[in-house]
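1st attempt posting a full record on here, be nice pls
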Amino acid sequence: MKKQWTIWWLVLAVITPSWAQFATSHSSTLAPKNANIAIPPAPAKPVARVNGALLTDHDLMREEYAIFPYARQHGGNIPKEMEPGIRKGAMEMIIFEELVYQEALRRKLTVPPATVQTAEAAFRKQFATPAEYQQLLKSEFQGSPRLLKEKVRRSLLIESLLKSEVNRKSTVTPAEVQAYYNKNPKLFSYPESFLIQTISFMPPAKATPQQMNEARKRAEAALPLAQAAKDDEKFGMLAEKVSEDDYRVMMGEHKPIERSKMAPQTLKALDAMQSGQVTGIIQVDQVYTIVRLHKHTPAGKTKLAEVKEQLKQELEKKKLNAVRAAFDQKLRKNAKIEVL
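the predicted structure (as tokens):
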């Protein structure tokens, strides 16, 4: 079966093998997250007890597949070296969800019947045929629509409590973003850099004078062609054809290079150039190189407006993890948890 069963409103986030970081949203407890992986039909075995409530290996396996959605590419298995960390993270998550659910019941939170009905209907629409839905109902809920409804209600209660205790307490204001930006100037500063293309001629290691001379002649033959190239594409095509360095497969293009990491001979030439200009032949050690300057970026600082949204998201994620960790500790304080 190639249908992936999930509940649309429950966003799955990757959980690190360590429980130091929490997922940004709990995962659905209704069905397998991996399309081609089914929970074994064998009777469920208890793996943990939370204040008397049993959690099973089926619950644990669903969460493991949620954490490692690529299991189907490994024949339904989790790589052995990753298995302990993933199992630990999955165990912590199902325990956390159960604690949240029990807390929601303790607070007498409710979900309107209409909301449960709407969620159920949305869930059923994910199935291509009624037979697919019935197969899930039989394999996961003993064929009982009532059990499915309870699972939907449980998920909605968990989601509701997490929204009030975690999500709403994890918002970051524009003032907080501004303050973080102001207090951490180094994080948003960038060094002077050069964006270049190169065509290089490289004699073998321990080259003889004759081999050095031959490399020089190859560079001299390429130089007028490089200087005649009207744009980066034409220079790049020439690099692909004649250059002897590894950058030829990328049309001679380099990632931005910081000033401190460039050879003095190259810097001397680039400092006197404008974008689009090409150097003469530059010798660095035994390599003869022709350089085209694409862009020179002076040192500076990224403006807040350019990073504001991304920074807000990162700060909210960090804050959410901290708030959720604190909520988890609070729930565990007086709970009786047994890993079986």
